[in-house]
Automatic annotation (TrEMBL):
InterPro entries: TPR-like_helical_dom_sf. This is Tetratricopeptide repeat protein. It comes from Aurantiacibacter rhizosphaerae. It comes from the Bacteria.
Amino acid sequence: MAQGRFVVFFVVALALAYVSVISAFWNLGRRLPEAIAVEGLAEHPDRIMGRATLSFRESRGKLDSIDFPSLRRALARAPLEEEPFVFTAAQLAASGRIAEAEAMLRESIRRNPRSREGRLIFLTLLAQRGNAHEAVTQIEALYRLMPEQRPVLRDTLVYLASFPGTRQSTLAAVSEDLHKRDILQGLARSGASASMLLETLDAFRDVVPRDARESFVASLSGPLLRAGDPRGALRVWMHFNPEAYADGSVLLDEHLNGSFAPPFGWEVRGGSDGYARIGNNGLEGEHYGRRAALLAQQTAILGPGEYTLSVLAENHGRGLSFDVSCNKEGDIATVDLESRENRTHLNVPNDCPAVTLELRARPSDPPRKSMFRITQVSLERDEK
């Protein structure tokens, strides 16, 4: 007992003496020899591992930039650090010893779950082997650790979700709605078919963001429409709007109350030349007369034949018209809004898979502001 107390007193006295010496140097305006401080810091395990990590990043993964002997010495002094395991794994992977590399990486992540380099290298090996389930786990962790790399991580998810060998396991492994939406939008942008998008939607169930539903739906159906597959776009769009066309109507939302999202519902626009919006009494807005402007539009899939377009405008302003166009034919009909009731006939040709109805405003000289309110737009097939 007495010996134990002596050891404690000795340690305390030694610590006090050390503090006194440091204070004395400080009070005299002198510093400890710089060589001692610099060498001590330079050989600190954290510094060695930090230098190795920096070299690895700056050289874009070149292993010859790493001082492995120093790393091994650092590991001996700090056995809980993960960096030596990460870089040794990279070395093993480069020589084709994948199983050993993965074991090293698992250990590095166990030691430091926030190891970005460890997870990135592990992700690369998993993706190369087609182990989509574990690859998705690493991607979801990296989303949180490296939010600035979201585009790259998203593209990796999209690749795994589109490649036949990893598709099903990827869809089953993704757990967070954000990542599911990234996959869906990435697939749409990369030219995925309507069937692939619908299969993915069925796997993910309800992933639509409540605060951005319209833009999300448009981001999936829009690329198909622009790629010349309007029926595929409609199939995807109908997944979110199964009640559409239930009444047999040709054109949706005839009373312009915003019942359906674009592109098969009304899309309204606004800018420096005018605006349109869905109000309590239909489509309303202003045009300032300076330049031509597209104010609203809707896409519809019609069979070939004769149709009648009718527009009811409570306030029709000046220089407004509804134009009906087909991608291949251009404009096939125009109805100028010159009175309360406006009507025109149009012929949809056989090679026109979809038409677009556009509310357009023409400029005036001198420019004059014009207000409008449209309460109904209908399109009906003519009886033969």
